[in-house]
Amino acid sequence: MIIHFSIGDFSSSATIAKDPSLKAVPFVIARGSSARALVLSPSPTARKEGIRVGMRLAHAQLILPSLLVIEPDYRALLRAREAIDTVAGRYSPSVAVTGNGSFFLDMRGTTRLFGPVVDSAARLRSEIHSSLGFDGSVAVASNTLVANVATQTIAPSGLASIPPGEESSFLHPQPVTLLPGVGAKIASLLHSVNIIHIGDLAGLDEKQVRSFLGPKGLELHKRAQGVMPNDGPVPTEAMIERRVRFSEPLIDYPLIKAALRSTCEESGFELRTRGLAARTLSLTLQWIDGKERMRSMTLANPIVLDAQIAAHAEILLQALLTRRPHVLGCTFRLSRLEPEIQTIDLFDAEQEMKRQNLQAAVDRIRNRYGISALSTCGAFHGK
Amino acid sequence: MAEILVGTSGYSYPDWVGSFYPEGSRSEEFLSLYAQSFETVELNFSSYRMPQGAQLALMHQEAPKLRFSLKAHQSLTHTIDPSTYKSSASTFAQAVEPLATEGVLLAVLLQFPPSFAYTVDHRYYLDSLINILSHLPLAVEFRSPSWFNKQTLDGLKKRRVSFVSVDLPQIVGTPPLLDVRTADLGYVRLHGRNKEAWWGSSDNKRYDYLYSTGELDSIARRITALAEDAKRIAVYFNNHHRGQAVKNAQALKTLLL
């Protein structure tokens, strides 16, 4: 079973969590006060007055002249996310953050420990509210798709649990706009032919879907039937993860690369200590404007050495660094882990042996004196 | 913080004598004895026979501090006749008037069966019934999963009618569990989680369930969350078999203190 937790308007919720006296005050999070400034996140009271994300700030102030404007505090946002993640981690070893204030927990195998999943969901919601001040909508379902639609159904707050076997009966009467993948354009297209509910879309046959929405519509059709292809951002396997928040936002590539190198070395050390090798690497960057992006790669052969890990991580970094704002931090993950089997390249046996021996020597020192006792120059650039 | 009232669904069960009511208690003493332990009760008899104002006024006299929720008569929920339901609704509204006047009517519960699905006709009917009874505090419990959608919740919010949160086994054929407040009053019904006996058993077996301490702890948290920004929350245990509802209600009251 899956738990989905969704905190709407996360930035304004984080502001209220920090200062509860703002709960009844209409305010928005927005950068600057120029005519072009946009509303990034309205508070619940501002939302009641019709103020929405993406609205021009000047327009919002016309609707509500007393509207308070608060600058975004991305550091506080990141801290809040980490705090929520810590609480969620007590309920499941597999927690996947899918956006600001939205995360999934894979609860398979937890019933014996924690009791029925719906009870865990209620406790999780209560703990996040009492210790961090956030409320939101929480849903339990057999897959991420149904859990996601359920949290949208009860938003902005509440608890839902969809019994196994009742996924379709729950999904079908919901508005088709709640289906992940249906944006304003597709919704308008669907409404034009009187497809209003998810069940209307599910009831079409594949030929009708293909002719109306094209081949990509088939995936939406499957979702309407409660099937989530490749279900889960929820990791189902062991992984090694490092989250780094830079002491100050960085923009220089060499500095970011150095921080990543250091992270790779820590991850690699843990990997080898556990006698494992990794096939998949993923890197997520968090920018100062609240955006984040993730890139990953899966290799034909598992890797284990720091140099190999760092080289691949740098490729991911280059692919991600296409935006201009400063970078606040990153998350580096090694997954698809498997037991480490030492293999020597027949055509480069001597060099390969040297690299492995060097790594083993470095690890011995780190084992004895700690991970920071020895680092490559690459991890120290600019320090 | 909202006022949270905990009670049971029904109070007149002979099998509670000995475990809750003192040995030798007579049925006409049950209500006043019940009111010594609880602040609210949900009356079920009103579903089976149309209540009368004098009868409800008498019950109020027997337990002046007790606050009542009443199940609407079955002619309004289960055996709906399009030609007579309006007069039935008026009769029912008149009957509960003494409780409303005394300020001890918490809600009228419109509990619909699984056959009452989210169809156009049923939506028109519900809208009409809510209009007729709009001067009373209303709560709606659906058993057909088709009603558990965003349009229903938005519609109830607009009409300030409470959506009833139910707790029952999470198995095929049961509706989803949704804790969502659509009005100032939150209304929670706890039916037990007897998975094995839920389908194809008598009421006694179906509701033969005692919530564990862990389950009650999570229910208390759900109620506390529902109480956020609410005026009042009414909670009723329906696992009445062998007095288990009373044990659970008393334990929940302690947890909510």
Structure description:
- The complex is a heterodimer of chains A (383) and B (257).
- Chain A is 42% helix and 22% strand.
- Chain A is built from 15 helices and twelve strands.
- In chain A, a hairpin with an 8-residue loop joins strand 2 and strand 3.
- Chain A starts with a strand and ends in a 14-residue tail after the last helix.
- The model of chain A is unreliable at 232-236 (pLDDT under 50).
- Chain B is of the alpha/beta class.
- Chain B contains ten helices and nine strands.
- In chain B, helix 3 packs parallel to helix 5 (85-101) and helix 9 crosses helix 10.
- Chain B is globular, with a radius of gyration of 17 Å.
- The A-B interface holds A 115-116, 118-120, 122-123, 125-126, 129, 135, 150, 152-154, 157-166, 169-170, 172-175, 178 and B 118, 145-151, 153, 169-181, 193, 212, 214-215, 217-219, 221-222, 224-225, 228.
- Strand 8 (158-161) of chain A pairs antiparallel with strand 7 of chain B, so a sheet runs across the interface.
How do the helices and strands line up, and which of them pair or pack?
The complex is a heterodimer of chains A (about 375) and B (about 260).
Chain A lengths: L1 E5 L3 H9 L8 E4 L8 E4 L1 H5 L8 H7 L4 E3 L3 H16 L5 E5 L2 E5 L4 H4 L2 H16 L4 E5 L2 H11 L3 E4 L5 H5 L12 H9 L5 H5 L3 H8 L3 H8 L15 E11 L2 H21 L2 E12 L4 E12 L2 H15 L6 E13 L9 H21 L14
Parallel strand pairs in A: 2-4, 7-8
Antiparallel strand pairs in A: 1-6, 1-7, 2-3, 5-6, 9-12, 10-11, 10-12
Helix pairs in contact in A: 4-6, 13-14
Chain B lengths: L2 E7 L20 H6 L4 E4 L1 H4 L4 H10 L4 E5 L2 H4 L7 H17 L3 E7 L8 H13 L5 E4 L8 H10 L2 E6 L9 E3 L5 E6 L12 H4 L6 H15 L4 E6 L6 H13 L1
Parallel strand pairs in B: 1-2, 1-9, 2-3, 3-4, 4-5, 5-6, 6-8, 8-9
Helix pairs in contact in B: 3-5, 9-10
